[in-house]
Amino acid sequence: MIKPAVNPEVINFLKYEKALIVEPSMPFAQSIIAFLKDFGVSSQNIFHARKFADAQEIIRTQKPKILITEYALDTQTGVALIPNILENYEEANKITILLTHDAGSSIIAEAAEEHVDSYYLKPISISDFSERFVKTVLSKIKATPFQVKIRSGKNNLKEKNYSLAVEDFTQAKTLQSNSPLIYYYLGLTHSLQSLGSEALKMFAEGLKINGLHYKCLLGKFDILYELKDYPAAYDVAKVIAKHFPLSPKRLGHILVASVFSHNLEDVPKYFEIYKHLEARPPELTKIFSAALSAAAKHYLKINNIAKADECFQMGVNVIGADATYIDMIIRELLKVRACQQAEAYLKLYPAHEIGQKHYSQGTFLIGLQSRSDRDEIIEIGKKLLTNNFADKECYLQFVKFLVDVNKKTLAEDVTTRAIKEHPELRKELYDMIENLSH
Amino acid sequence: MRKPTVNFHVYNLTNLTTEMDMIKIKAETPIGLTEFDQHRLCFEVDPTSCSIGQLVKVEGIIEFPQAPLAFSCLGKVSHTLKQDNKKMKVTIELRSYDKDIWARFTSLLKTRQSELDKVFNSMKDDE
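Predict the joint structure of the above. Result:
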């Protein structure tokens, strides 16, 4: 065993503290357990869990102040345990360390936003880990007057004592006038009281000191996003995305801002970031696939079919072989008569969808536009009706086609059936047939 | 952007005295290091694989981001720790090895960590 260097102050503090190690791999858990013991944590105060639920239970019953966790756990991430720790301790008192092989940028962003105190990469160099651990513990037990004020302000914020919080942060300013962090917390205090414009002023002050202060940028973005000032929010988002890694949650907000600010051509640029995310929450998948379809529709509008196709393909990559999504793509492409591109998407339907509603509708609509064999189209159309797969669009296109090829009786039959299901189509369909009669 | 994982993956552990292979490692599941420092490395093996004092040869591949590099070293088993999952953690004191390659490996891990710290701390800016 590689022994760590010890620090008496830290040992003294850790003597009575409980620690939870959440680590699926035994060798790593053993290393950390041995390490903590060397730092004076008693054996009965060290808990080990391999699974997320077990860790939650230990946090609930044992209330450990120290959490050392792997990122990738069985059901959720180790970072998701931090709110449980914060139920028992103030942020300033708990010690949370992420220990993982992964240095993925979205994990870094998530860790920074979710109150991880220290982020350490595996494999472990015990001497480095020891140095880092001591630093983290000392930052908790030996606060500077500035830190004391900031912490007191944060506690007051938590208790919704806003005027006391402002007092603390203002006093902190006298101790360290050039810290953008103070302006961030002053801004946050305003923001929590729904004083958006006041908050923006504070974030702007912070950004005057450091134009790339992450927290002030985030604060500014969040306010503008909440105020639905999407163009301004997206301007801030671009700075954040350029200089910092993005967490999945943040990426979702940025995508929404880019769509609502009509920066649709930027949407596909986020695909690379999305592709490299370690975790892709379903909500983000939904947002991104919708944003990509909005971008694709924008490109269709300006007649850039190749770019639209690229966005649609990314959309399928993001959401997977989803029948509704593929159906939407095919119909959008057919609207601009991009029949060949639309046909390629038919091949993306999963096996169990072939012959089902969306696939049959797509085959039929593509067939109509690609001017396949006339009789064959009529057969596909009839089959669509027999299977009750026809929707409004299919009825309209089918009747139009039948009128075009002079099949009046069949067109009337299809119209009668269409009107039963969609009475609102009556006029449109009869007008078509009427044209044939003349 | 995701950074590739950097580690030393052990593919073979040989008893230098008997020249017998001490562990059987499948190519698709090499053993990654758990701990390291300038002259030592730790990894997990079956409990009967080796014992303290044995002289061993460790062979494997260092996963450098640009290109993996074969690395072997001679050393002595200095510590073993049995685990409750029927495995054992073994610490090997390195004796004869290419110090430049090992230094490159350990310094790369440190660089990776300090790059991460730089980004992480700039985002946290805690007090």
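The first strand of chain B starts at residue 8 and ends at 15.
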